[in-house]
């Protein structure tokens, strides 16, 4: 497994974009839980953030796509409003080990 993010590097109620092996992802920390998604809008496949590390709407309750404003639930990535309503962000499977967010090598197209 590969460590992609230190859980201390993301503040409660905020989001953070990052890349590993040229695969773009972002994390949200809410109620001390980490959520991890591919950084691709299910509408047109564009990156979601407004500016660096800004993936959430104004009150931090939902993920919002910067291109056409689609809104997604943080907990499961489901699109609640916008052109991709009913579709979902793709979650990245992970575990947390010793404060590090870890993903399997094959998810990053890395051999073991
Ligand atoms: S590309 Fe995200 S809502 Fe259109």
Description:
- This protein has 112 residues and is mainly β.
- The chain has one domain (10-95): Rieske [2Fe-2S] iron-sulphur domain (Rieske Iron-sulfur Protein), CATH 2.102.10.10.
- It has strands at residues 2-6, 14-20, 23-30, 33-38, 62-64, 71-73, 79-81, 95-97, 100-103.
- The protein has a 3-stranded antiparallel beta sheet, with no helix packed on it. It has a 3-stranded antiparallel beta sheet with strand order 2-3-4, with no helix packed on it.
- The mean pLDDT is 96.
- FE2/S2 (inorganic) cluster (FES) binds next to loops.
- The site of FE2/S2 (inorganic) cluster has 11 residues, from loops.
Number of strands: 9
Helicity level: under 10%
- Give Rg in angstroms: 13 Å
* The level-1 CATH class: Mainly Beta
Average pLDDT over all residues: 96
Which structural class best describes the helix and strand composition? mainly beta
CATH superfamily: Rieske [2Fe-2S] iron-sulphur domain
Gross CATH architecture: 3-layer Sandwich
Note the run of SSEs as H and E.
EEEEEEEEE
Please tell me the total number of domains.
Answer: 1
Bound molecules: FE2/S2 (inorganic) cluster
Assign the CATH topology: Rieske Iron-sulfur Protein
The backbone outline, from C-alpha atoms, is: globular
Question: Proportion of β residues?
Answer: 35-45%
Quote the distance from N terminus to C terminus.
8 Å
- Main sheet? 3 strands, antiparallel
- Count of helical segments? 0
Strand order of the largest sheet: 1-9-8
């Amino acid at each position: 497994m590969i460590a992609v993010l230190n859980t201390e590097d993301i503040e409660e109620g905020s989001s953070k974009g990052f890349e590993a092996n040229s695969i773009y992802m972002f994390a949200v920390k809410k109620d001390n839980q980490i959520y991890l998604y591919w950084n691709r809008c299910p509408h047109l496949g564009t990156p979601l953030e407004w500016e660096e590390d800004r993936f959430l709407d104004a009150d931090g309750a939902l993920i919002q796509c910067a291109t056409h404003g689609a809104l997604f639930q943080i907990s499961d990535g489901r699109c609640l409003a916008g052109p991709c309503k009913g579709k979902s962000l793709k979650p990245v499977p992970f575990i947390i080990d010793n404060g590090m967010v870890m993903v399997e090598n094959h998810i990053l197209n890395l051999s073991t």
